[in-house]
Amino acid sequence: MVGGVVLGLVGQADALARGEVSARELVEECLESIARQESLGAFRVVRVEAARREAVAADKRLGEGERLPLLGVPVAVKDDTDVAGETTPFAVAGDHRPAVNDGEVVRKLRAAGAIVVGKTTTCELGLWPFSESPGFGAARNPWNPEYTPGGSSGGSAAAVAAGMVAAAVGSDGAGSIRIPAAWTGLVGIKPQRGRVSAHPHTDPFNGLTVWGPLARNVADAALLLDVLSGSHREDVYRLDPIATPFVEAARREPGRLRIAVSFRTAFGVSGKLDPEIRAAVERVARRLTELGHKVFPADPDYGLVGLGLIPRGTVGVAEWLDSIPGARPERRTEVEARIGRTVGRRLLPLAKRLDPYLRRKVGRIFQVADVVLTPTTALPPLKVGAFDGKGYRDTQSGVAAACPYAWTWNVLGWPGVNVPAGFTERGLPIGAQLLGHDSDEATLISLAAQLESAEGWAERRPRELSSPLR
Predict the structure, then answer these.
(1) Exactly one of 22, 171, 176, 197 is catalytic; which is it?
(2) Per the domain annotation, does 470 fall within a domain?
(3) Which of 442, 441, 437, 337 is nearest to 392 (CA)?
(4) pLDDT tens-digit readout, 445-464
């Protein structure tokens, strides 16, 4: 896709504003790319005619001199996000009704002029690091379709990595933006809790889940985060508006930072790390040293951080599942919900009371470091169908071993950014996490942009996108 792959989100917006391309042209290229790569299963629903109508309207507005950050730019959203006129199954079979109103994420996209071309594939209620469900199919990795793009925002990641759209929105409750970004070679930003409103969900998954961008480069991700940022008056967690746009952070040097490199996982979680991933993260650490940063080994003290995850997550699954009329989930999803209805609800008040203690305990790392560098996942991408037919216990233990690094920052509510870190010998992407302190997305974005300039990852694309015909 000429607009999405070559221009990117920032480039598309600029080209539209200068009249070098039309919204109709970008939307048609986007729709053609989605149709041509339908076998990747990136989209649950494509808004073909609606997107075309919105493109015509955008071109009219552009012609009349109107300018907005994303006016006429096609984007995608994950299928946990309400789009008026579309259902929001979140991969659970049920008696779904079309949403009457846009969710706040989509409202902000429209307010910025963006065109939502479709809703992307996920797994049931975002539970797993793969994007597969019995009722809604499987998303596949553009780098090798035998493998998953990750989850639960895997459809959004596949859409961006395959060049169907320049950027997409995902959500992250235990790594669900950062994991698919790692496994598809993208930048994925998990913002600070409260940075992006999920209204009508005022406390999604009891503070675990936040919405954020997936993009090929840092500037595009920062622009999309700027568009999405802002609290709703009914949100449980609210933040003041940022003083400086994140796109400005992507343009400035980060200065000399103290970066702690950690391979430690939280207590009770498997610490077995694939040697190729360890080597990739160590290589990134050396690159950061070459860029002038003070890089050293140091581990956060996670303590009993897991006590903050399980009640929030299980209760969140129960609440979402109970809100679906006629829900017909997988057995393993129902088991998670049952845990939430029984044990989770009793422990949730304690989990929330632990927040200040956990933030103080883990936050001591920031007395000696500005950023923590870790692997994003412990294993490379899994095969599509790897957990087909598995029960709750086998699935839970398997995915915990594959992805033990991301979820701690969801409990804390702090920001994290996945950056591409290289490839396995089989040509599958590897990611590394830059983890920050409270509300410090700007430092992470600035550092990621500096690293991107040195690494050049934005030019690496799956084979089809590198074809001379493209």
Answers:
(1) 176
(2) no
(3) 337
(4) 999 999 999 999 999 999 85
